[in-house]
């Protein structure tokens, strides 16, 4: 970082340092900064892209908490107990070393019937994730349960599988109505429409395999189709609280024979102000002792724990795979923070995507709907998703993102919870969110089901503060400076060079004469001309500098060294006014004091740098 030593101004009688020396300093520090930038990571990320880490790696370090009820006794599933007894015999017959390693969570070890097993196999699932394995028996046996595991650890199937088993072979079977017009036996409440649709898809796929019907109801879509499906009769209703309440009030949903109720992302639902709707829906059940209630989330703030005791029975079980562990966010995600002023966001984000998305999908979170729309317009190929967009369009957008029609989604918190989208490699949060829960859920849209991912949070060094998020989430953020366009260009230049070597020789005759003409007339060497051609092929027509402080293009971060305390930014501005014209002082951006209080950092336009470095000598 270039620096201006103004101690001479503050300590009378000292001589100004040599101007050239500062320029040298500027050069070397710019290079050092560039070395910090993450271009090399592109490769290593690509290499590790498909490497899966076992979810159990994380869960091994987890604990079962008794904060919210009696902790579940982590015993092997019932069928496994039997198989253990059997395996004693097998031990005698087989030498130890030849025995294949047993997977304690293999699907076969649980009371999962053949059609569901086949469906799981079809979806590539041979083994249950820890939260699924640890809650399966409790749920299938009909007990109330609070389940918590980090994002992307399979909480949905943790309730879908045992509940379906309970309806077809377990305790809920006896109470389940059958035939046309049957009322639902299971109700699932979720905070967002997108999430309701996603959970419905699981109930439909797995429930369909065992002959059960599910229906999804949410706001923003017509009542008609939902009503006729409900009237025909369903076993499971999945939806958002507002629309479910409406259907109850219209007489379309009868909860008199309800056996299981599930609150997914319970804290968000209650935080969003659905608490009255949720209470009304849950209150429709006359004899709560006969109903099983399940509550799941990756985050369970203490106030939710309080409310949960109103909905769940006193003998509820709790399986908490996060517990008192410091790290509450996904451990499969690389958590990064990067300084960036709001005006530099749209310039910087494409480079962050180039560096960290490994060619996969990116979700960008903004705090407001307007910011989401604005950013989606500014970023090529991006689409917006937020609550002011019509439901039909929301569905089209999400389907397009899921299917890979476009790779960048700019969203508000509507996409923060639960959404499970394949190959989301990168999450960008435009500023630190207000609540730690938001950070955990947003960053958890990547690094799912054992895959790895990157979450970058931008912050304005003058305005935003992420220490609360860091403290409460337990995340130790990696601090990086903005990727420099020069480094990114070098990396993509390699790709362009590789691309060119693969081009067929058949193109040469067509372009040779114009190439020769260019070489003879341009005044540039063959290497320089080729470099320009490569730049164009890689999409570059110029390369700008980016400041470290606010990530602004064509700006440079400067350090003002006073040699004694600078008490406030206005003091620093006062120092600058002593040797710079007013309009240049006004153009300074992001003035902030250094940690030791003896200096200040700020951004200046690259073209003014010499003026700033020279100004004090004039
Ligand atoms: N046993 C399993 N084996 C392999 N993949 C699984 C298994 N269980 C779930 N998955 C996959 O893991 C992904 C994440 O699951 P899910 O969406 O249920 O996570 P979650 O814990 O609810 O996350 P969030 O807290 O973000 O809502 C899904 O793609 C799901 O299909």
TrEMBL record:
GO molecular function, one term: RNA binding
Entry's EC annotation: 3.6.4.13
Pfam families the UniProt entry points to: DD_DDX21-DDX50, DEAD, GUCT, Helicase_C
Cited CDD domains: DEADc, GUCT_RH7_like, SF2_C_DEAD
Region (Disordered): 1-103
Amino acid composition bias (Basic and acidic residues), ranges on this chain: 90-103
Domain Helicase C-terminal: 347-504
Enzyme class (EC, first level): hydrolase
SMART domains attached to this UniProt entry: DEXDc (SM00487), HELICc (SM00490)
Keywords: ATP-binding, Helicase, Hydrolase, Nucleotide-binding, RNA-binding
Biased composition (Basic residues): 45-54
Catalytic activity field: ATP + H2O = ADP + phosphate + H(+)
Domain named Helicase ATP-binding: residues: 136-318
Gene3D superfamilies, per the entry: 3.30.70.2280, P-loop containing nucleotide triphosphate hydrolases
UniProt superkingdom: Eukaryota
Similarity-based family: Belongs to the DEAD box helicase family. DDX21/DDX50 subfamily.
PANTHER family noted in UniProt: ATP-DEPENDENT RNA HELICASE DEAD, DEAD-BOX ATP-DEPENDENT RNA HELICASE 47, MITOCHONDRIAL
Protein name: RNA helicase
């Amino acid at each position: 970082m270039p620096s201006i030593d103004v101690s001479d101004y503050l300590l009378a009688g000292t001589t100004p340092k040599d101007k050239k020396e500062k320029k040298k300093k500027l050069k070397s520090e710019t290079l050092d900064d560039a070395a910090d930038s993450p271009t090399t990571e592109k490769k290593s990320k690509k290499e590790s892209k498909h490497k899966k880490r076992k979810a159990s790696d994380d869960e091994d370090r987890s604990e079962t908490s008794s904060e919210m009820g009696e902790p579940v006794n982590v015993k092997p599933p019932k069928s496994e107990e039997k198989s253990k007894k059997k395996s004693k015999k097998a031990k005698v017959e087989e030498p130890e070393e030849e025995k294949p390693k047993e997977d304690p969570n293999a699907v076969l070890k649980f009371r999962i019937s053949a059609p569901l097993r086949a469906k799981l196999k079809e979806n590539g699932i041979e083994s249950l994730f820890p939260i699924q394995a640890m809650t399966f028996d409790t749920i299938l046996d009909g007990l109330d349960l609070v389940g918590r595991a980090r994002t992307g650890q399979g909480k949905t199937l943790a309730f879908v599988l045992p509940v379906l088993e309970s309806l077809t072979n377990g305790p809920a079977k006896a109470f389940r109505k059958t035939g046309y017009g049957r009322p639902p036996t299971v109700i699932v409440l979720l905070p967002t429409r997108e999430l309701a649709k996603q959970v419905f898809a699981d109930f439909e796929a797995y429930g369909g395999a065992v002959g059960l019907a599910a229906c999804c109801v949410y706001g923003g879509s017509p009542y008609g189709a939902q009503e006729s499906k409900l009237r025909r009769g369903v076993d499971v209703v999945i939806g958002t609280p507002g629309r479910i309440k409406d259907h109850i009030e219209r007489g379309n949903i009868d909860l008199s024979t309800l056996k299981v109720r599930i609150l997914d992302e319970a804290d968000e639902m209650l935080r969003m102000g659905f608490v009255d709707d949720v209470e009304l829906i849950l209150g429709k059940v006359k004899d709560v002792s006969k109903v099983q209630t399940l509550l799941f989330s990756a985050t369970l703030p203490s106030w939710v724990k309080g409310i949960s005791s109103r909905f769940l029975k006193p003998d509820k079980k709790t399986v908490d795979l996060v517990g008192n562990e410091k790290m509450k966010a996904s451990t499969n995600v690389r958590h990064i923070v990067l300084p960036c002023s709001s005006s530099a966001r749209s310039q910087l984000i494409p480079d962050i995507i180039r560096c960290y998305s490994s060619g996969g999908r990116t979700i960008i979170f903004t705090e407001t709907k307007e910011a989401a729309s604005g950013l989606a317009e500014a970023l090529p190929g991006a689409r917006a998703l937020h609550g002011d967009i019509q439901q039909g369009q929301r569905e089209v957008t999400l389907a397009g993102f899921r299917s890979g029609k476009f790779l960048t989604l700019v969203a508000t918190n509507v996409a923060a919870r639960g959404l499970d989208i394949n190959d989301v490699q990168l999450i960008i949060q435009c500023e630190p969110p207000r609540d730690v829960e938001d950070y955990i859920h947003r960053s958890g849209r990547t690094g799912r089901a054992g895959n790895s991912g990157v979450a970058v949070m931008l912050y304005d060094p003058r305005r935003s503060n992420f220490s609360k998020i860091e403290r409460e989430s337990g995340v130790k953020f990696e601090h990086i400076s903005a990727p420099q366009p020069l480094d990114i260009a070098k990396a993509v230049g390699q790709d362009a060079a590789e691309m060119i070597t693969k081009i067929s020789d058949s193109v040469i005759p067509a372009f040779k004469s114009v190439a020769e003409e260019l070489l003879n007339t341009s005044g540039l060497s063959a290497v320089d001309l080729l470099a320009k051609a490569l730049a164009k092929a890689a999409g570059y027509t110029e390369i700008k500098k980016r400041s470290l402080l606010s990530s602004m293009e064509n700006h440079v971060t400067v350090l003002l060294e006073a040699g004694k305390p600078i008490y406030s930014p206005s003091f620093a501005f006062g120092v600058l006014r002593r040797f710079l014209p007013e309009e240049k002082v006004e153009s300074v951006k992001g003035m902030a004091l250094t940690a030791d209080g003896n200096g200040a950092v700020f951004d200046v336009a690259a073209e003014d740098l010499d003026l700033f470095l020279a100004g004090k000598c004039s």
